[in-house]
Specification:
There is one protein chain. The chain is α+β, with helices and mostly antiparallel strands. 29% of the residues lie in helices and 21% in strands. It contains 11 helices and 10 strands. The strands form 3 sheets. The chain has a 6-stranded mixed beta sheet with strand order 2-5-4-3-1-6, sandwiched between helices. It has a two-stranded antiparallel sheet with strand order 7-8. Helix 1 packs across helix 7, helix 5 runs antiparallel to helix 6 and helix 6 (185-195) packs across helix 7 (199-208).
């Protein structure tokens, strides 16, 4: 297990809520940047300290190493000068029990800062030229103590709920992506991950729906990123759009994916006439369930889902 310090600057809210780190591969002028290269060195189980606005407010553990990825669309105008191509690392973040201002503790932290590529300056202020810095075990354990955090020694890289065996149609779609030479390598990678509810698609959905709409479960490791409009009916842009996704507990996802439940735009749940009361009772689901209203951008996808729900045979 290694320790890393990330300086989010303007992107902290996106990355911490979405559960990822993203950096360009190079500086804007194409020059080598070691703190971007560090993205390729992180491994599942590594600990990441999240720093922005003068304090460490969250701590995370890496659940998937770096993969090539286009810049997240939710960054908007932030980082317009960055290259569109970059590295994506999946991280499970939690709020720090005791948020920490390094400048207040610089006497204890300072002696352990890296001599090169330090995430903060000797006065305790952030180093603007550093994104992801490797730090020593000694400094890592000091920060854990100051933050009041205990970290498990082992952390599974298989942290997300997933289907044990891909369905035949999923395998067919993955093959179609793989042989499509009109796509860039990074596009193929992200579309493949999106097909199984992972990668950039999952991050974008988490920004829209950070918890299960029906059960309220917030632990992202126990949720499935489900497409609202089916994969085969969607364009490539829709396939990785966060608005075409919903985070659901596994049993709710099974009902939603099979069009046994759907939702009105205002959040009212629709139950298909073929779904038995016995299933609903055993899973403690009320037919009168009304969840949080959906965003306007999700309405076109929900309309498609409701149409398929209405057409489903009894």
């Amino acid at each position: 297990m290694a320790f890393w310090w990330v300086n989010h600057k303007q992107t902290r809210d996106h990355e911490v809520r979405g559960g990822y780190l993203w950096s360009p591969m190079r500086n804007a002028n194409g020059a080598f940047n070691q703190t971007y290269e560090n993205m390729k060195l992180v491994r599942p189980g590594d600990v990441v300290f999240s720093y922005a606005d003068g304090y460490i407010g969250a701590i995370g553990q890496v659940i998937e190493g770096a993969s090539a990825s286009p810049k997240p669309t939710e960054f908007g105008n932030v980082g317009d000068y960055w290259s569109h191509e970059g590295w994506l690392v999946s991280v499970y973040f939690s709020a720090a029990p005791r948020p920490l201002r390094p400048s207040v503790h610089i006497q204890s932290i300072g002696p352990f800062l890296p001599a090169k590529y330090s995430p903060i300056q000797r006065n305790g202020h952030g180093n603007q030229g550093c994104y992801l810095a490797g730090i020593s075990d000694s400094l890592g354990h000091i920060l854990l103590t100051l933050l009041g955090v205990e970290v498990r020694p082992e952390f599974s890289s298989q942290s997300f709920v997933a289907e044990p065996e891909p369905r035949t149609e999923v395998l067919d779609d993955l093959h179609a992506i793989d042989v499509d030479r009109t796509l860039l390598e990074t596009q193929r990678l992200q579309l493949s991950k999106a097909r199984i509810g992972q990668g950039l698609f999952r991050k974008c959905v988490m920004l829209v729906d950070p918890h299960c709409r029906v059960t309220g479960v917030q632990d992202s490791r126990l949720l499935i990123a489900s497409h609202i409009k089916p994969w085969r009916d969607s364009t490539n842009a829709e396939r990785i759009s966060g608005f075409n996704g919903i985070m659901l507990s596994p049993h709710i996802d099974a009902l939603f994916d099979d069009r046994l439940i759907s939702f009105e735009n205002d959040g009212q749940m629709l139950v298909h006439r073929s779904l038995s009361d016995d299933v609903l009772n055993r899973w403690s689901i009320s037919k009168k369930t009304k969840v949080e209203a959906f965003r306007p951008e999700q309405s076109i996808f929900l309309n498609h889902h409701r149409t398929a729900f209405a057409a489903k045979a009894a």
